[in-house]
Specification:
mainly alpha, two-stranded antiparallel ribbon, 7 helices, 2 strands, 56% helix
Length: 159
């Protein structure tokens, strides 16, 4: 039961091949006239459809390998196609080095949580030090007014 739920939740992260746009899965057979594609991609798609070399490459390689080969020649559509095919990779980084979005997001959340934990720790210590200073009657903060009877937060004697 638990594994079935886990499998269903993981399937949401990986789109099925049927959900990919036609220009990604079949770049040489779909009609440009009826395609729902951004205008800036149309020029590269039309140019790609005219290339016999690219058609041969498409027939002999996998879909993701084909689009990886297109990055230099057709950068706009190749990057967009790879973003669709490989959803966890980010191609916008410095020097276009892919990094994993999901991991980067988790790392950011962890860093934020660590920062909050450090701030809370500092605030607790400040409250403790302020209480010790007030309860001991030490105006200088050097411990000159330490008495035998503690009445502050650090008191372990019940009264």
């Amino acid at each position: 039961m638990h594994l079935d739920e886990l499998a269903k939740s993981l399937n949401g992260y990986f789109p099925t091949r049927e959900s990919y746009p036609a220009w990604v899965t079949q770049p040489f057979t779909f009609s440009v006239a009826t395609a729902d594609v951004i205008d800036e991609y149309l020029d590269e798609i039309i140019e790609l459809q005219q290339s016999q070399v690219q058609q041969q490459l498409f027939r002999t390689t996998t879909l993701s390998t084909f689009w990886c080969h297109q990055i230099v020649v057709y950068p706009l559509i190749a990057k967009k196609a790879l973003e669709i095919l490989i959803p966890f990779v980010d191609f916008r980084g410095p020097l276009a080095q892919p990094c994993f979005r999901k991991l980067r997001n988790n790392r950011t959340v962890i860093h934020k949580n660590l920062f909050v934990a450090m701030v809370v720790q500092v605030l607790v210590r400040l409250v403790l030090y302020a209480d010790q200073t007030i309860s001991r009657g030490d105006s200088t903060g050097l411990g000159s007014g330490i008495s035998q009877h503690r009445h502050g937060i650090d008191s372990t004697v019940s009264t």
